[in-house]
Amino acid sequence: MKQNKTKPSVAPIQQTVGMAPSLTDTGRHDGLFKKMFYLSLPLMLAILWTIGCDSGFHSDEMDMSIYGKANIAYYASGGKDTSYKKLVLEDGTEVSSILHYYGSGFEYFAAGLIKIFGKEAGYEYNIRHMLNQFFAILAVLFAGLTAQKVMKQYRPAFITAWLLFLTPFFLGNAIFNTKDIPFLTGYIAATYFLLCFLEGLPRPSWKIVAGLMLALAFTLSVRIGGVLLIAYLCLFVFIYWRTDKALKTGLLPAMKDWGLKALVAVSGALLITVLIWPFALEAPLANLQKSINVARDFPQRIPIIFEGEYLDSLNIPAYFLAKYMVITIPVLIILLFASSVLYFVRYYKRFQWRILLFIGFASIFPLFYAIYTKMPVYNGWRHLLFVYPGITVLSGAGLHVFLNLVKRPAYQWALAGICVGAMIHPAAWILKNGHYTHMYYNELSGGFGEMYYQYESDYWQISVKEGIDWLMQHEKLAERKDSITLGTNAFSFASYYLKRRYPDAPVRVVQCGYRRRFMVPWDYAVINIMFLTPQTLEYGFPPRGITIHTVDVAERAICAVVKDTARFDLKGIDAFNRGNFVLADSCFDQYVRLIGYDPSGPDYLEGIVSLIGFARLANNKPYAALPYAQKALAHDAGDYFANLTAGIIYFHRGNMTEARRYLQTARNVNPQDMYAAQYLAQIAAAGR
Predict the structure, then answer these.
(1) Which tens digits make up the pLDDT trace of 389-427?
(2) Rounded (10°) CA dihedral 677, 679, 680, 681
(3) How far apart are CA 570 and CA 588, in angstroms?
(4) Distances, alpha carbon 513 to alpha carbons 221, 452, 471, in Å
(5) Which of 10, 270, 647, 665 has the greatest number of beta carbons closer than 10 A?
(6) Residues contacting 190, CB < 8 A, separation 6+
(7) DSSP 3-state assignment of 306?
(8) pTM for the whole thing?
(9) What is the sign of the dihedral through the CA atoms of 142, 147, 150 and 153?
(10) What's the pLDDT tens digit per position in 563-617?
(11) Residues 517, 521, 525, 528: is their CA dihedral positive or negative?
């Protein structure tokens, strides 16, 4: 019977670098740090459950929830119920047609808990969020265990755990992001078990094989992109074989053992994934390949704000992900990661470099792959959030080494104190902003206040819940006898939430995009900043004069509660469309007075300001009309009514050059326009 060859032991890191024991040296205190690490986990969960209690949710999560239930219905019906292919929310909104390319690994757990604990009064999503937060702490656990495996001590595990937990972008997503956090947890868990498998070569234990299989299965059942982990296994088995002296002679003779175990882990994970994923079950090879293609080339065009420009997810610069990470990750972790990588590369022989290489590769390769393939991403870097635990592992391991390099205990404590002080900024943000923790921007960026007009903030529309709650409590809508119409750009969420939390309130919800709010009948509106342009954020949000409350982060409004029961704007547009410009001008004048609007000021009434100008002109008020036209043109040079108004005014002033320019633009925008055509014909006839 063949025996395992004993690998050379790895000396403790303090011996490797010539370090004498000190108060912060884990050579003496490893048991204490182990206890501190494991005791930190329930504390973190308690903190997360506290700050994440009753947070808002979003339509994407509603889509995933109904998709998970449809997958369960597929199995409950013996495969007859295939509604997962075409889903519709309660309000009639069709769910994205690409949703079946995602697995439901997390959704099965969530649906089970909801069935056990019920969903009375609309608390279904609180149950989902608590489960998601539990998964986030599992990710912290496996990140710490991975750091422990790197250095064979628990101080780096303790450091890594807190670096990860106190990262606002991670913690904020942990509150409610049931798409990316479960995948992140599966990825770091699979990374840990892959390392255990590799370190156990040539004869890894069946216990490790079982852990690896389950971790891979869960990861793949959330997102098929987890297939990268299988490729990592193949690559690093080869690297271990070529670089480990003991394995050079021992790996091939033991191939029947480790090869069988690797096959069991991978094939078992794939089998579980297929069996619990209806779309994959119908045609395993073909549909898994389709899912991989969709993940790589996401077909939907999503508007985003980046560097003050309004872009879309299919046309982002190559540095998009790197830039977002640099301005949202705590500065200390950026510095630790960069310095740790440089140090480990320089002195790789002093460490278990294969483990470090594996973690670095698993953390950095997906970023380069996403950039190289021009993978569409949006909502910051949440799609690549799964690489972040590995980044904190390298950062935590690096800080552990740097502490050991400092020979005097007092200096070690000073370095530790500096690091703690550097994390005060993100920790304070977390405590202050709770549900909106994910909007953090670090000191390098200037903070959220500076980035508000430059980058994404409440892209999940989490703040709409707080806006609705404030409205219901302060305006006492549940006590009204008459029907109230609520306009919102978070229609699916608002419809679901009001029905569950305020079932007796006489409130009817209507879809109301911010730019079209003038054209939709509503008494109150709750408007989130999602999909608003930087220009609108700076000059048109929140609506001036009629906003009765805002949900703020760092003194910037991310959601506005609006009240306007007179609706002179709507009446004015209705009269305008009917050609009654006298009534339109009168209604617009009352609206302008109501909100205190001055066209010479910085505010901008997007979607209506050019109509006000044309109505002024139609009522023989050219001097009152021109400022409105100029305001509209300053924000949109192609605005039809603004060009038409300016062209007619300059025509009557005798400035034919300007008149022709504006009128021709109006004609280009609307070739059927008769007004511009008539004036242009007069200019041409006059030879001017």
Answers:
(1) 999 999 999 999 999 999 889 999 999 999 999 999 999
(2) 80
(3) 9
(4) 35, 20, 19
(5) 647
(6) 212, 215, 216, 219, 226, 229
(7) strand
(8) 0.90
(9) negative
(10) 999 999 999 999 999 999 999 999 999 999 999 999 988 888 888 999 999 999 9
(11) negative
| Bridge partner residues of 310 (DSSP) | 305
How long is the chain? 688
Residue with the two structure tokens 């879809």: 511
Q: Exposed, middle or buried, 334 (CB in 10 Å: 0-12/13-18/19+)?
A: middle
pLDDT at residue 9 greater than cutoff 60: no
Give me the torsion for CA of 266, 269, 271, 272, rounded to 10°.
Answer: 170
Closest to 452 measured CA to CA, from 544, 552, 376: 552
The structure tokens 């021709």 sit at 664
Print the SS3 string covering 516-544: HHHHCCCCEEEEECCCCCHHHHHHCCCCC
- φ/ψ region of 505 (left if φ > 0, alpha if ψ in -120 to 50, else beta) reads beta
Q: How confident is the model at residue 299 (pLDDT cuts 50, 70, 90)?
A: low
Buried b / exposed e over 71-82, threshold 16 CB at 10 Å, is: bbebeeeeeeee
Cis peptide bond prior to 156, omega within 30° of 0: no
Instruction: In whole angstroms, give the CA distance from residue 567 to residue 172.
Output: 38
**Is the previous residue joined to 389 through a cis bond, with omega within 30 degrees of 0?**
no
Which amino acid is it at 337? F
Answer for the pair 495, 90: CB distance below 8 angstroms, yes or no.
yes
Sequence-separated (6 or more) residues with CB below 8 Å from residue 350 = 13, 16, 17
Q: What are phi and psi of 549, to 5 degrees?
A: -165, 150
Q: Which two tokens stand for residue 582?
A: 């006298």
Give CA–CA dist 403/412, Å, rounded. 6
